[in-house]
Amino acid sequence: KFKFMNPKILALITARKNSKRLPKKNLKKIGNKTLVEWSISSVENIREIVDIFVTTDDLNILKISKKNGAISPWLRPKRLSKDNTSSEDTVMHALKWYEKKVCKPDGLLLLQPTTPFRSKANIKKAIKFFKKNKSKPIIAVSKIINEKKFLKPLVNGSFYLSSIKYFKKFKNLSPKNFYPILIKKKEECIDINTKSDLSLARKYFNKSYYTN
Fold it and tell me: CB neighbours of 98 closer than 8 A, spacing ≥ 6?
């Protein structure tokens, strides 16, 4: 009954080398930090996060991750680094290694480097909710993404939090049923996939819109 009072959550960052629209996207810098480093720092010093794991096929990302205190034990196999590789397969591969070599966590927090400005406050809010609700994943949503406004909140790529049990059962990072955490700040809802997206993120940063 009390297992989830202090859940052990693995923060997992997926950072592939190749990106067609914005080459070496995850190594692009905003301020003095790469996109990967922004994601690592967003979950540092959160009590429930037992480890920060970066799965990548890029040696530079691997080195940066280790330098910043994350686990990055190997380069991801080529079969899991293709354009058509599913995120679910990538996550499962890393999770199996972690459970075998380190420990069995209760939860999985998936972060994408392309949404660098997520706040610790919203992650902590999601974790607090997770402690009471384990039946469905908790996913960040917003009515604005890259300054485009939508009538209904959409999944914005900021984070996905799920029990390990749920993820292993359904192997689906885009379920129809989930608990939404609404993100209102527009800088937290940026999703960098193109040069213009990167320029927008740098504009936010340079105007000091964002403070972590």
Answer: 10, 51, 53, 71, 105
| 27-59 tens-digit pLDDT | 999 999 999 999 999 999 999 999 999 999 999
* Phi and psi at residue 175, to the nearest 5°: -75, 155
Residue with tokens 């890259």: 146
Please, is 129 exposed, middle or buried when counting C-beta atoms within 10 Å of its C-beta (0-12, 13-18, 19+)?
Answer: middle
Q: Can you give the pTM of this predicted structure?
A: 0.94
In DSSP notation, 158-202 reads EEEEEEHHHHHHH--SS-SS-EEEE---GGGG----SHHHHHHHH
DSSP 105: -
Task: Enumerate residues 6+ apart whose C-beta is below 8 A from 73.
Answer: 97, 101
In this structure, are residues 201 and 117 in contact, taking their beta carbons and an 8 Å threshold? yes
**Alpha carbons 15 and 93: distance in angstroms, whole number:** 14
